[in-house]
Design a protein that fits this description.
Layout lengths: L20 E5 H6 L3 E4 L2 E4 L14 E5 L2 E4 L8 H5 L7 H15 L5 E4 L11 H7 L3 E5 L6 H4 L6 E3 L1 E6 L2 E6 L14 E4 L12 E3 L12 H5 L3
Parallel strand pairs: 5-6, 6-7, 7-8, 10-11, 11-12
Antiparallel strand pairs: 1-4, 2-3, 9-10
């Protein structure tokens, strides 16, 4: 069954914006991040380093950003009632979230979705993913059925990931942690699941749409929060 709410969306804006430039190494460019295996499925390691590399290594400047989001729950009407999202029906809800996503995320950006992407009753997950901008990585949530986790248009699928960017170690999981890897060395836990209702610990951020104005966010935006 096809995913229904399809409409024109904002595309990638051409030109180089200095705020979107990140220096990454040649290996990443050639392989689109080094691969590792989880079970029988190819996954993608996510160690991205902002800044300059050792003098002997090739360096390239690529216009991309890294975004985070969670708990979109496309095609799941429960969010209108439980989370009181301000839409009369799921069609308008899904259309608004698609527009918000594509207005922020460029086609060449990376976006990490930290779980609970869409309902199994919502139709073709790959079709919805093809509408959304960016290289899309899924951290599996408790409401992600096989129709979501086995979709082909994810760049990577995993239950947990660690990402190094802007000199910060990010620990990504659908569920918030009480303690996490290298917590004592200022690592940061990004999570979903709590729909903006959980009081965070220091260096812990809910990236779910209910906590972030129904939009993807960058690490810089999270770190600027009071």
């Amino acid at each position: 069954m096809p995913y229904v709410p399809i409409l024109p969306v904002a595309g990638w804006q051409s030109g180089l914006d200095p705020a979107r430039l990140v220096v990454i190494d040649a290996t990443w460019i050639k392989t689109n991040m080094p691969h590792f295996m989880v079970g029988a499925r190819k996954q993608t390691s996510a160690r991205l380093f902002a800044g300059h590399f050792d003098s002997g290594r090739h360096r390239s400047i690529v216009p991309f950003m890294i975004y985070f989001t969670s708990d979109t729950h496309f095609a799941d009407p429960r969010v209108l009632r439980i989370d009181r999202r301000p839409f009369p029906d799921m069609a308008e809800h899904d259309v608004a979230l698609i527009r918000n996503w594509n207005a922020i995320v460029g086609k060449d950006d990376d976006i990490w979705h930290l779980g609970d992407f869409m309902s199994a009753k919502g139709g073709d997950c790959d079709q919805l993913l093809s509408i959304l901008n960016g290289r899309k990585h899924l951290i599996i949530g408790n409401c992600d059925p096989e129709t979501t986790t086995k979709a082909e248009n994810w760049t990577s699928v995993q239950h947990y990931a660690e990402l190094v960017t802007d000199e910060h170690l990010l620990v990504l999981c659908h569920f918030p942690f009480r303690t996490w890897h290298k917590m004592g060395k200022n690592s940061i836990n990004l999570h979903g699941h709590s729909h903006g209702r959980l009081k965070p610990m220091p260096r812990q951020y809910d990236v779910g749409v209910d906590a972030r104005a129904l939009r993807p966010v960058t690490l810089a935006q999270l770190l600027s929060l009071p």
